[in-house]
Structures are given as structure tokens and as C-alpha cells.
Amino acid sequence: MCQLLGMSANTPTDIRFSFSGLRVRGGERGPHRDGYGLCLYRQRGVQAFHDFLPASQSDLAVLLERLPIKADVALGHIRQANVGVVSLVNTHPFIREWRGRYWSFAHNGQFRGSKGLPQTYYTPVGTTDSEAGFCWIMNQLRALARPPGEKRLCTLLHQFFQDLDTRGIFNAMLTDGDRFFTYCSKSLYWITRRAPFGQAKLVDRDMMVDFSRETTPRDVVTLIATEPLTEDEAWTAMQPGELILWKNGEIVWRGV
Amino acid sequence: MCQLLGMSANTPTDIRFSFSGLRVRGGERGPHRDGYGLCLYRQRGVQAFHDFLPASQSDLAVLLERLPIKADVALGHIRQANVGVVSLVNTHPFIREWRGRYWSFAHNGQFRGSKGLPQTYYTPVGTTDSEAGFCWIMNQLRALARPPGEKRLCTLLHQFFQDLDTRGIFNAMLTDGDRFFTYCSKSLYWITRRAPFGQAKLVDRDMMVDFSRETTPRDVVTLIATEPLTEDEAWTAMQPGELILWKNGEIVWRGV
User: Fold this and answer.
1) Confidence class of residue A177 from pLDDT cuts 50, 70 and 90?
2) CA–CA gap between residue A27 and residue A10 (Å, rounded)
3) Rounded to whole angstroms, how far apart are CA atoms A246 and A238?
4) B121-124, long-range: CB within 8 Å, 24+ apart, which pairs?
5) What is the pLDDT of residues B7-45, one digit of tens each?
6) Of all residues in chain B, what percent are helix, strand and coil, respectively (each to 5)?
7) Which of A1, A231, A247, B244 is most buried as measured by Cβ atoms within 10 A of its Cβ?
8) What is the pLDDT of residue B241?
9) With an 8 Å Cβ cutoff, is B102 touching chain A?
10) Mean per-residue pLDDT, A56-76
11) How far is CA B255 from CA B154, B165, B243, B248, in A?
């Protein structure tokens, strides 16, 4: 099993505090030793970081923790390999372009029948069930006679995610840098931080942050993760089978 | 005008020495202040780094210089914006998946008529002529009735590159992590390092490396750049209109 981390915010926000917590689960405090990845979006452009080394030991991850990059949307993943060898090509998030946007995807769990999924426009590069699932979803969107509106896109994605979920476990995150979709199979938690901002301490490391010093009163920042990352905030559990679409840190669609 | 850097090697090779030379041309010793990018391939997986800040000042570039990542193939670019604003979406290399491989592309120069190029499968995310040219090339390859063999691929790419070259200046590099294509419009130089290895000093910085200490006698490493990066080695100029396909550091196809 892997761990997921997502962020949707209404202002460019530094993800380092949360990433610091996730990172130590990659081989130090957790078994997720098989690589990690982080996509940071800024105005639809994406900075992607991938490594097949444990996030807790990787030089790149150490450097990332020091890098003051702010993002509108972030998608992170640390991997415990089950399907597919430890390798750069099997490291989430996976990225494909559709309709002039970079879509990235990460998955936690595993599911049956990924080899049998029909692929058309997009082809997996690696050998994970996750990337096969992602390509299959994007291929079905591409095959539509006309591009779906947002509501229809939500309904379709909900259906595709649930489809794969019936074959195993399929916690997933998908984003185009503006819209952020989170689907809960077994375990996803979220928290929305807004004024008045407080303090929080990481579960996994002896690190604290006072958000009131880092934000303006108008900021809205939502974090979504496999397990709560902080110990003194009230995280909300998503329901099994639930899809939420986030935009600018707010819920704009949800369905179970 | 921008600057390009490519590497094709028969063994995973550290690109940091060359990147150090290129980097200072990004705003310190050159006018290429408008972002930079570097794709490092390892077994068809790709680690991509993009930033819209000057390479000479960017925190990420400073960190990259310290990162001991070895690659089979590398593609780097520093940008001086002419078409398209300074932004992450306009930062080379651009990446698309085709037939289960990540293809990345970078361009130096500018050309007319990029807005009028017909796009089908792949759509530009940003607003550069370069990305439009890349998508147009990949769209034509995708539209073929059957996937081309390697010789046919070379002939076709040569034709597409020359086509865009007649509209302006089109020095370009394209790779799938195995095959490395370089096309010279006005300025590209290459050097192949093999045993017996010597020393080299960067043109742009007071840095030296003794390759004999970093290599084995079987290593073959080719560097290709807009201008020679070292001052005590004999770089070969590519001819205008010439395409070379490199594999494992060796020339496997060339045509003018």
C-alpha cells in the first residue's frame, strides 16, 4: 500500500510542511520505500519530481524539503511496490496531456485485471496497475464524442473510479492543475484550513507550524491524505465510494 | 535564442559538470534568463526538472548541481523568451507519451506560422512556437497508418525538422530515452568522450574534471550543445540541415 498527499488552494501555497511529514513515512517510519513523486502546479504548468529511492533517504527529497516552491495544486505519492518493479517508470504521479492540460494521477491500493484494460490513445510506460488504470480512465474521456462539462466529468470519473474500486482497492487522486479529484476506496482524510488560522504539529516528525504567520485572512488551503498528517487538527474521513472535486481549496462537487 | 544541451551515453553518466557550465549562461554569463529545464532518463523513466526562474539564480538549479543523479540520456534547455511569456508552461523540454515511451523535446530559435500548424492528438499547453512544433511533429508520427521502423522514423523526422527550419531557425533535440535526435539549423556542436579519457575545463566557469577518474575504459559519452561547453576539447560542428540519431553515445544515422 502507498500513501497519497493532495493540496488544493486559492493562493500559491508552500507544501513543504506536509511533504516533510509524508516523506518520513517513505522508509523511516513506514514501509513505503519504493520511490515517491510530487507534482506542483502553478498556472497550469507543472513541476514534477520523481525518484525510485526511499523518500526518507533520497537526496532529491532532502533538497525538495528546502525548496521554497509555492503551488496552487500539489499531488504527492510515496510507494510501497506491489504490482510493478521499483523503477522510475513505475513511480507515481503519472502525467498525460489532454486538451491542452497536464493531467496527473496517483493511486493507493491495488486492483485485479489491469492488464486486460483496453488502451487506445494513452499507453502505460511502466508496468503498474495504477498507470494502466489511469490510462484507461483518460482513454475513455478522450473517446467521448464531445468534451464533457464539469458536472458530467464528475459523474463519469466517479463511475470509472468505482469500476476499478470493485476490483480491489482504489484510493486515487487526479488533477489538471485547476480541478482536484479525490476518490476514497478505504482511506482518505481531508482538512480545510482558513481564517482564523491556528498551529499544527506533524504526527510523524517533531515539527510545528503556525499557519497564521504564513497566510493572509483570505487564504483557503485543503490538504487530503491517506492518513491525517497533523495531530492537533480535526481531519474529516471521506466515505468509501465517495468522489470529491476540489477547486481553490473548496468542495465544488461530491457524490457517494 | 536559447541554449540546448544533450547527452547520449552507453552507461549511466553524471551530467552535472556540463549542466554547471550551461547553468551560468542562464542569466549570469548569458541573456537566457527566462527559465530552464532538464530531463534525465533512466531505463525509459524520466526525471524532469523545470523552473521559470533564471538557471543561474534558481534554488532548484543550485540543488540540481549537487544532486548525484546518473542518466542514460539527458536533455537540457535554458530559455530566452521570444514567443510565449515567461511561465512554467512555456519552459522546455516538453514531454508527451507515444507508444509507451516518454518523448521529450527542446528547441532553440524561432519560426513563423506555429499558430497555423494543425494539431490533433497532442495539444500545446503553453503558447510557444516550440511546443506547437513538437506537437505537430508527434501528431504526424501518430497519424501514420503503422508505426515507422527506425530508418523511416529518421527520414520522417528529418523532413519535419527541415520543414519547420525553412520558416525560421530550428535547432532541436528529441528523445524517447533511448534514441536521441539532434537537428542543426545554425548551431550545434558535439563531442564524444571515450578511452583514453582526458581532462576538460568549462568555458563558462572555473571548473575542471578529469574524466579518467569518473569512467571505465568501456564508457562512451556524447555531449551535444548550442556552443562548446569546454575549452580544451575538439568539438565538432553539425552542418546546417543535418539530423543525427545517437544511441548509447554513438551515431547510428545521419543525413543532411
Assistant:
1) very high
2) 32
3) 13
4) B121/A121, B122/A97, B122/B96, B123/A97, B123/A99, B123/A100, B124/A100
5) 999 999 998 888 888 887 766 666 777 889 999 999 899
6) 20, 35, 40
7) B244
8) 98
9) yes
10) 87
11) 9, 15, 5, 19
Q: Is the separation of the CB atoms in B70 and B42 below 8 Å?
A: yes
Q: At B195, which CATH number? A: 3.60.20.10
Exposure class string for B124-145: b at 16+ Cβ within 10 A, else e? bbbebbbbbbbbbbbbbbeeee
Q: In whole angstroms, what is the distance from residue B95 CA to residue B45 CA?
A: 12
- Helices A150-165 and A129-142 pack at an angle, to 10 degrees, of 150
Chain B nearest-CA distance from A130, in A, is 15
pLDDT computed for residue B58 by the predictor: 83
Question: How far apart, in whole angstroms, are the C-alpha atoms of residue A154 and residue A152?
Answer: 5
Distance, in Å, from the CA atom of A89 to the CA atom of A80, rounded to the nearest integer, reads: 14
* Residue A87 contacts B where some CB pair is shorter than 8 Å: yes
Tell me if A222 sits within 8 A of A177, measured CB to CB: no
Residue B169 belongs to a domain: no
Number of H helices, E strands in chain B: 4, 15
Residues of A in contact with B123 (CB under 8 A): 97, 99-100
The CA-CA-CA angle for residues B226, B229, B232, to 5°, reads 135
pLDDT greater at residue A84 or residue A223: A223
3-class DSSP assignment, residue A116: helix
Contact indicator for A213, A195 with CB cutoff of 8 Å: no
Alpha carbon of A231 to those of A205, A206, A208, B152: distances in Å?
11, 11, 10, 60
C-alpha–C-alpha distance, residues A186 and A240, integer Å:
6
Closest CA to A83 of A105, A111, A49, A52: A111
* A44/B89 CB distance under 8 A: yes
Residue A161 near residue A183, CB atoms below 8 Å? yes
Q: Is residue B194 part of a domain?
A: yes
Is A239 in contact with A246 (CB distance < 8 Å)? no
> Chain A contacts of B59, Cβ < 8 Å?
66-68
What distances in angstroms separate CA A202 from CA A23, A210, A235, B42, B50, one per listed residue?
Answer: 12, 12, 13, 34, 29
CA dist A162 and A157 (Å) reads 8
Alpha-carbon gap, residue A88 to B13, rounded angstroms: 16
If one counts the domains in chain A, the total is 1
pLDDT tens digits, one per residue of A130-157? 999 999 999 999 999 999 999 999 999 9
Asked if the structure places residue B175 within a domain, the reply is no
Q: Supply the residues of A annotated as catalytic.
A: 2
Provide the residue range defining the domain that includes A151: 3-255
- Which residues of B are catalytically annotated? 2
The verdict on residue B36 lying in a domain is: yes
